[in-house]
Every structure is written in C-alpha cells, then in structure tokens.
Amino acid sequence: MTESLHVVCPHCDTVNRIPQDRLRDQPTCGKCKQELFTGKPLELTSQRFPQHISRNDIPVLVDFWAPWCGPCLSMAPAYAQAAQQLEPEMRVAKLDTEAAQELAAGYSIRSIPTLALFKGGREIARQPGAMSASDIMAWARRHAGLT
Q1: Contact at 8 Å (CB) between 76 and 126?
Q2: Belongs to which family (predicted)?
Q3: Which of 60, 71, 144, 145 is 20 to 30 Å from 121 by CA-CA measure?
Q4: Annotated catalytic residue within 9, 29, 32, 69
Q5: pLDDT tens, 19-72?
Q6: Do 82 and 106 form a contact (C-beta atoms < 8 A)?
Q7: What is the pTM of this model?
Q8: What is the residue extent of each domain of the chain?
Q9: Residues 6+ apart with CB under 8 A from 72
Q10: CA-CA distance, 62 to 109, in Å (whole number)?
C-alpha cells in the first residue's frame, strides 16, 4: 500500500490526502474540484502562509520578494519556469514581503529575493539572491533530498 500525503489546495486552502504514487496523475481538490498542481508559483499571503507551510507533506519552496525589487522581477520568469518542473515534487510559492512585512521580519528576511525551503513545517534551507531556473531547481531538489 502506498503512503498518502497531505497536499494543501492552492485555490481554497483545503488539506487533501493523496496517495504518493498518484501525485503525477493531476489530482484535484476534494472540496473545490480544481487541480492541486498548476505548474505556477502560488501567491501566498500572511493568512495563507501558515496553512501551506505546516500542512503540506511535500516540501514548500517560497520566494520572498517585493514588487519594487529589480532582481526579484528579473528572477520571476525563471522562478515560474522552475515551478513547472518542480511540481508536484514540491509546492512552489511566492510571498510579497511588502504586503507581509511582519511575516518576513519573523523569518528574518534581510535581502530579497530570498528562497526558503520548508519541510514538515520548518525551514530547512535558505538562499538569498537571484538565480536561474536551472539553479533554482538544482538547489531546491538538493536541499529537499529529491536528487
């Protein structure tokens, strides 16, 4: 019997239980019926952040960014490209530090963009600075133990 994983819906934030061997079968949310993996970075807010970090059994990669940050904006297409490749192995998300200043301060985000990888509700790796799509994927997979 295959192990089931909890995956939080990117649309309605409902926790779904998915057999691990079915992650690549385009699973849908039991509540809202939308796809659990969109291949695009999920926009998180201060309110949604805790649910996605603590309730996903898959690793969660978060880009801490701001709309006025030149390096953040230049990395955005590479991050979106990485999301297409990393899902469903991990959830790929973005958090606007301008809109979520207290949350960013709570995680001691001192420079942006900063990538942080969460697993089991806790941060396991952090990387400041803009990166290419291939570097994002390699870094995230290495630190998540998916290589």
Answers
A1: no
A2: Belongs to the thioredoxin family.
A3: 71
A4: 69
A5: 999 999 999 999 999 999 999 999 999 999 999 999 999 999 999 999 999 999
A6: no
A7: 0.96
A8: 38-144
A9: 63, 65, 66, 112, 113, 130
A10: 12
